[in-house]
Amino acid sequence: ASQTSLWTSAAAMEFELGRRQFAMASGILFGFAWLVFLDTVAHNNYCLGGVEQGDPCHWGHANHTQPIPPPGSTPAPPPPYGGWQALDGRRALVFVPGILALVSIFMMNTVDLKDLELDSDWVTGGSPMLLKGWMFLGACAGFSALAMSIWVHVTIFAAEPDVKDGVGVGGMLSVLLMTISSLGLWLARSYGLPSGWGDLNAPLNL
């Protein structure tokens, strides 16, 4: 019995350490996702601002047709930034999926797996059905972020010839990584020891 107890305690400690490391890796992935997106935005702004100052990124002029002025009229001045467009107007929609993903990771990770049980005695200060609805809305926000990031890239950054598509790709990649991070954090918090971090005397909740 003593050996069984020691084995169970060692297994619980190993599992607890593993899920802590998994949660830490998921958090690091979340931070890396934001770094990917912010880096693409910063690189885009740096290259855009440098088009008229030596063009360090070798963007050249945007590949789109300028309107031909009528004969005898004064030619229009060349467009700023070589004709490339900044991240404003419709292009600013690229920031919305990241915000939705941030809302999703908050909503999903305020609900534990045990909170989804139908036993109302387990849930303190809330209804299991309302918690399920809250988590469902969080999941919808996450999937909406993924879908919108793809839509923004396809319809704006890949379709318009005067916009570089790096920010659109970075937006899709960052939202995908944030979605994986959110799921990883939720799994790490929901499985394992039912009474929280560090209670090695409690049975595993698998």
Précis, in short:
This protein is mainly α and 206 residues long. The protein contains 4 helices and no strands.
Report on the structure:
The protein has four helices and no strands. The protein is mainly alpha-helical and 206 residues long. α2 (96-108) runs antiparallel to α3, α2 (96-108) packs parallel to α4 and α3 packs antiparallel against α4.
DSSP strand tally: 0
Biggest beta sheet attributes: none
Helix proportion? 55-70%
SS-based structural class? mainly alpha
Helices and strands, in order, run as HHHH
What's the average pLDDT?
81
Round the Cα radius of gyration to an integer and report it. 25 Å
- The N- and C-terminal alpha carbons lie at a distance of 22 Å
Number of helices: 4
Taking pLDDT < 50 over at least 5 consecutive residues as the criterion, the unreliable ranges are: 195-206
Shape estimate = elongated
Amount of beta strand: under 5%
Structural topology:
Layout: H1 2-49, H2 96-108, H3 128-157, H4 166-190
